[in-house]
Each structure stands twice: as structure tokens, then as C-alpha cells.
Design brief:
By secondary structure, the chain is of the alpha+beta class. The protein is built from 2 helices and 6 strands. It is elongated. 25% of the residues are buried.
């Protein structure tokens, strides 16, 4: 489950931000997860709670913001909604469709004390 290592990366970002911005506790982490990022939100929530235990984010709420997948069809040259990498273009049925959005995961915002 790679969500555990991703949650550890989120903790590192939170700790770095706490050192730079001098806050003591994190109440909420807003995390954007792209539909094509190969990250399971429920697994991420589970791992987040486990990794944050005993840290400045212990008990913090994880708010997942899901970002839709998007791609550029090389066949019809349209930007289309993409539910999965390697799906055909929903507009023309053609291939390939290059993912252009919804592939990322990032900490968007922290609510801190």
C-alpha cells in the first residue's frame, strides 16, 4: 500500500511548514487527489490517521478534494474528461489520450493553531 509512504510525505511537508511558519498544531489538512493519481482516498485516510498519531497533526482531520481526470485526445484534439488512464476518448472513441490533469496529489491548505 503506497498510501502509507504518501502519508509519511504529507507529514514531512506539515513538519517543514510548522518549522518555517511557527505553528504548534494542525487541525485540518486539505489534500487534493487526482482521479488518475492511483491513490485510493479511503486508504489514504486510514494511513493518514496512523502516520499522524503522536505528531503535531495528531487528531487532525483529512479533507480530500477529488480532482477530475482530464486528457488531450491526439485523434480529435479535444480536451476531455478522463475516468482512467488509457481509456479511449469519450468524444470520438480514438486513441491516444494523454492525461493532462487529475494525475497529481498535493497538500492544498493547512488549518493550524
Amino acid at each position: 500500500m503506497h498510501e502509507m509512504s504518501l502519508a509519511m510525505g504529507v507529514l514531512q511537508l506539515v513538519e517543514d511548514a510548522a518549522r518555517e511558519q511557527h505553528f504548534q498544531r494542525v487541525k485540518t489538512v486539505f489534500l487534493e487527489i487526482g482521479e488518475l493519481a492511483a491513490v485510493e482516498p479511503e486508504a489514504m485516510r486510514f494511513c493518514f490517521d496512523a502516520v499522524m498519531s503522536g505528531t503535531l497533526a495528531d487528531g487532525a482531520l483529512l479533507k480530500v478534494i477529488e480532482v477530475a481526470g482530464e486528457g488531450l485526445c491526439f485523434n480529435c484534439n479535444q480536451t476531455v474528461r478522463l475516468a482512467a488512464r488509457y481509456d479511449p476518448c469519450p468524444a470520438c472513441g480514438g486513441f491516444p489520450v494523454q492525461a493532462t490533469g487529475g494525475t497529481e496529489m498535493r497538500v492544498k491548505e493547512l488549518e493550524v493553531e
